[in-house]
Write a structure and sequence with these properties.
The structure is a single chain. It is built from 2 helices and 3 strands. With 110 residues, the protein is of the alpha+beta class. β1 and β2 (45-54) form a beta hairpin.
């Protein structure tokens, strides 16, 4: 017996489906400016540090120092989830995103 004996014709394969996304309890939205760091936590999992840009001001007009990136959330996800997440992001931003935009936003690439 060979692997060919177990092949199923492609027209007989069921469609690939994604389980529905459910939110049984309302979850509060959190605005983030970006991903500040990604840390390998082992077992094929990574921690993403999400931040918001912040400038301390006193008395609400004069900056007290340089801008800071304040960590407001940390998310752990498996390495295997990154390709799908990146695909969803690219699909969501669609044609408004170009490589030129990436170079404008990431000085290290210039």
């Amino acid at each position: 017996m060979s692997a060919r004996d177990f092949e199923v014709p492609s027209d007989e394969l069921p469609p690939i489906t994604t389980p529905p996304l459910i939110e049984p309890q309302p979850i509060v939205d959190t605005y983030v400016s970006g991903v500040g760091a990604i840390e390998d936590v082992g077992g094929g999992n990574y921690r993403l540090y999400l931040y918001v840009n912040q400038v301390m001001k006193y008395p609400l007009t004069e900056p007290l120092g340089p801008p800071e990136r304040l960590v407001i959330a940390k998310v752990i996800m498996p390495r295997t989830a990154f390709p799908d997440a990146m695909g969803q992001i690219i699909t969501a931003i669609g044609k408004t995103f170009t490589v030129y935009d990436l170079h404008k936003q990431v000085p290290a690439l210039n």
